[in-house]
Amino acid sequence: MANEKPITVHPDKPKLNPGDQAELGTPGAGENVCRECQGTGKLGEKDCPICGGTGVVIEEIGGA
Q: Which three-class secondary structure state does DSSP give residue 12?
């Protein structure tokens, strides 16, 4: 047992940033420009905390 590796529950699950509403590839969701950093990925000299420095967030689309 001492040589066992820890089990990862979701090893392939992408990290969601605070501004993401869903995972990439979720039906009914898509990429949008981060409103906090206007797509630059930066706020001043630091990575944007909303998009994680990517400049995009995953949001739900549409609605009738």
A: coil
